[in-house]
């Protein structure tokens, strides 16, 4: 049976004197890692609202952190970390689910078709944004 790796991360705020106490216990700084992340989202912050975190780590590439398995118990949160660009794009750009039309629209279509037609004409006369052919347009 193949075994995978599990990363356990726990965040804490060290109190005053923590570094000195660690040194008293024999701890030393082995190495320091510095990196720069750039986070991306939509103007409406839709990724953040969905608990998705899209970042590009300097010299490392893209990463998307999104909620993992539901129902995880304990003082932790489980996230999937996607690093393959096709997987990230698939996660962020799955086909939009069709939604039911608004009740008012259905009412106009059924009982006031003239008003519905006028509404369509008014909306079609407004300036529409141009569509993009860029396959990565959904990454903002």
Q: What is the percentage of strand-forming residues?
A: 5-15%
Number of helices: 5
User: In sequence order, what are the helices and strands, one letter per element?
Assistant: HEHEEEHHH
Query: How would you sum up the major sheet?
Result: 4 strands, antiparallel
Beta strands, count: 4
How big is the Rg? 25 Å
Which structural class fits the helix and strand makeup? alpha+beta
Strand arrangement across the biggest beta sheet: 1-2-3-4
User: Which overall shape is indicated by the principal axes computed on the Cα atoms?
Assistant: elongated
In whole angstroms, how far apart are the ends? 41 Å
> What is the helical fraction, as a range of percent?
25-40%
| Low-pLDDT runs | 129-135
Write out key terms for the chains shown.
140 residues; alpha+beta; 14% strand; elongated; CYTH_domain; thiamine triphosphate phosphatase activity
